[in-house]
Amino acid sequence: LRTNELFALKRFNVYDRETRKQLVQEINTLYEVSCPSLIGFFGAYQKKGNIYVILENMDRGSLNDLIYNYDDMPEKVLAAITYQILWGLGYLHYEKRLHRDIKPSNILANNSGEIKLTDFGIARELDDSNMASTIVGTFRYMSPGRLRGDPYGPPSDIWSLGVMLIECAARSLPFPSSNTQIELAQALEELEIDEMLPPDFSDEFCEMVRLCLAPAPEDRPRAEQLLEGPWLEKFGVADLDEAVAVTRTWLEDHPLAEGSVPSGLDASKMISTLHSECSDDSDGSYDSEEDAKAEPK
């Protein structure tokens, strides 16, 4: 049945061992989770050495697009976006899973105002110890403990959120001169959070960032505690529906420029074109495709 519904296809080269490992992890996570703040999964298929994972299409691209393409995101909108991120993180942590790569490019948006976590290729299901130890992810968003190789748990995702909040507010990453894990670890030893906080944001926002970036993991709040925190309360973002509505209103006032395509999406490619190019190597790029013709699983 042809529906003309848009989906996103994530393409993997099955001959690459590491890519194959991440593919298995991503499909397992997508298949087992169900949360409105996590990307929707509609199945997968194989063709000519590639596996295609069919995902919900997020037509406004990533949070990275929203940060750097617009310079007037109000604090209330950032609070609404953060609420949805925390909702997804809270769900993952409740299910004893870590995302391990929270960053703007792994947070997607659609015109309905929904914000969703994606890219679960290095997500991890926790054992009874509730800790992990492998150093994977984007190092600029890693907590000090992860950089040192210490065991880590859900507070490591909260640290990444704190770094991302600074990036959203300042429209730049902290410690831009730290080009290696060692350099960043050294910079974090001398971290002065107040020096990185934007002066035009509320005291409640600054306190939330301080909590997320607490040096000791046990001092960082859980996602569900942050959902009830004073920053979100200040802007009246008290539930998921309100968070989506606030985000949607702002996006409606900031439409995509005519002819522009959100990062990672190429709506001009149709499924027939993709099928003719299936032999191309890829390590997981995104294309926006029409009518993926796959049964949901």
Automatic annotation (TrEMBL):
<dbReference type="InterPro" id="IPR011009">
    <property type="entry name" value="Kinase-like_dom_sf"/>
</dbReference>
<keyword id="KW-0547">Nucleotide-binding</keyword>
<feature type="compositionally biased region" description="Acidic residues">
    <location>
        <begin position="279"/>
        <end position="290"/>
    </location>
</feature>
<keyword id="KW-0067">ATP-binding</keyword>
<keyword id="KW-0418">Kinase</keyword>
<feature type="region of interest" description="Disordered">
    <location>
        <begin position="272"/>
        <end position="297"/>
    </location>
</feature>
<dbReference type="InterPro" id="IPR000719">
    <property type="entry name" value="Prot_kinase_dom"/>
</dbReference>
<dbReference type="Pfam" id="PF00069">
    <property type="entry name" value="Pkinase"/>
</dbReference>
<dbReference type="GO" id="GO:0004708">
    <property type="term" value="F:MAP kinase kinase activity"/>
</dbReference>
<protein>
    <recommendedName>
        <fullName>mitogen-activated protein kinase kinase</fullName>
        <ecNumber>2.7.12.2</ecNumber>
    </recommendedName>
</protein>
<feature type="domain" description="Protein kinase">
    <location>
        <begin position="1"/>
        <end position="232"/>
    </location>
</feature>
<comment type="similarity">
    <text>Belongs to the protein kinase superfamily. STE Ser/Thr protein kinase family. MAP kinase kinase subfamily.</text>
</comment>
<keyword id="KW-0808">Transferase</keyword>
<dbReference type="GO" id="GO:0005524">
    <property type="term" value="F:ATP binding"/>
</dbReference>
